[in-house]
């Protein structure tokens, strides 16, 4: 039987250096600092940097100096910038922090991994993506406990790059990334990058496309339509308030997976249109199938697999939890199982 363990700040073997202090990076800095874990960061915005400093946080607007400090302190580097800035950040890391471990919070993973491979940094990289956020951005949007109960994807593709498996340093880095996410009360789900990008295309990026579309259609109805708009319109268009540059960065860099999901959505809409144009208009099929899909989503929050001795329900979400012993003989098989189940994980070391 596998065992689970509680994770504390002492389990992380290094400080955390946050490169980018917007909603995600800033919220992570707040949480780590509140827990007493060493954390510092870089913010390109002078006003954001000043605001963070005035609140007592260890923040600089000098990227090179911050990365050099991370190298001196053997910090975990967290890239928390939009996708267009990742390549330039990696170049600075390669030059000024040649031994630091790297992770990120970018919402697409395949393109980030490609850039990491091109930079020759793959042995020092573990991808991440917290499924948390709001339509707001910047330091002023950051807040404590943003990640509480949120899914946080941690990737493990590099584990397959060598027939001998990953080295000890990479396994330790992977474990630290998991423990950092657990520190801020997130629920870690392991995934490989292609599976992640396919999933987020359906549940994150396509909703942005649909929200923009609904916002435009509603606005085209004029003043009366907007005056009558209530919760269904407000809720379905909430993410349309996200900065257009962030929406573009997400959707354009995940276009291949997004096109698959978008084609599926268009087929459903075309079928609904065909039924509505008949002599006896009908929404039965779409409404019934959509209702059942929503019920399955809601039921999953309390789902647990019975009879598997390594699986127990998460105390926060009720979803299945697998215990992982990083570097053990069958740990990659356990990660694959967790990926297939969408299960949360705990790490245990013997």
From TrEMBL:
Record-level GO BP terms: tyrosine biosynthetic process
Domain of life: Bacteria
Region spans: Disordered: 300-323
Pfam family, one: PDH_N
Domain Prephenate/arogenate dehydrogenase residues, every copy: 14-317
Family annotation (PROSITE patterns): PDH_ADH
Keywords assigned by UniProt, alphabetized: Oxidoreductase
GO molecular function annotations of the record: NAD+ binding; prephenate dehydrogenase (NAD+) activity; prephenate dehydrogenase (NADP+) activity
Keyword flag Transmembrane helix: no
Family according to the record: Belongs to the prephenate/arogenate dehydrogenase family.
Name used for this protein in its record: Prephenate dehydrogenase
Species of the source: Corynebacterium occultum
């Amino acid at each position: 039987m596998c065992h689970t363990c509680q994770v504390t700040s002492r389990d992380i073997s290094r400080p955390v250096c946050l490169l980018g202090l917007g909603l995600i990076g800033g919220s992570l800095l707040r949480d780590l600092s509140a827990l007493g874990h060493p954390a510092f960061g870089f913010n390109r915005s002078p006003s954001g940097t000043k605001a963070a400093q005035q609140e007592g946080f260890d923040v600089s607007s000098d990227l090179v100096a911050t990365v050099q400090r991370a190298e001196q302190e053997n910090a975990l580097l967290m890239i928390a910038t939009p996708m267009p800035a990742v390549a330039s950040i990696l170049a600075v890391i390669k030059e000024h922090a040649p031994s630091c471990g790297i992770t990120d919070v970018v919402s697409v993973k395949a393109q980030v991994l490609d850039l990491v491979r091109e930079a020759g940094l793959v042995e020092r990289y573990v991808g991440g993506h917290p499924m948390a956020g709001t339509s707001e951005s910047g330091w002023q949007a950051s807040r404590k406990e943003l990640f509480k109960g949120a899914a946080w994807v941690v990737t493990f593709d590099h584990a397959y790059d060598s027939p001998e498996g990953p080295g000890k340093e990479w396994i330790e880095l992977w474990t630290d990334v998991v423990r950092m996410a657990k520190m801020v009360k997130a629920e870690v789900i392991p995934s490989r990058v292609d599976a992640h990008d396919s999933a987020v295309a359906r549940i994150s990026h396509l909703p942005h496309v649909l929200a923009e579309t609904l916002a435009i259609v509603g606005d085209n109805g004029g003043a009366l339509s907007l005056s009558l708009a209530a919760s269904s319109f407000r809720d379905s268009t909430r993410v349309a308030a996200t900065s257009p540059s962030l929406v573009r960065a997400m959707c354009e860099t995940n276009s291949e997976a997004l096109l698959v999901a978008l084609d599926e959505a268009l087929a459903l809409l075309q079928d609904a249109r065909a039924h509505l144009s008949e002599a006896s208009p009908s929404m039965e099929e779409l409404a019934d199938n959509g209702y059942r899909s929503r019920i399955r989503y809601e039921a999953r929050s309390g789902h647990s697999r019975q009879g598997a001795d390594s699986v127990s329900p998460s105390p926060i979400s009720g979803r299945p939890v697998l215990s992982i012993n990083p570097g053990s003989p069958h740990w990659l098989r356990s990660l694959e199982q967790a990926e297939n189940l969408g299960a949360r994980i705990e790490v245990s070391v013997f």
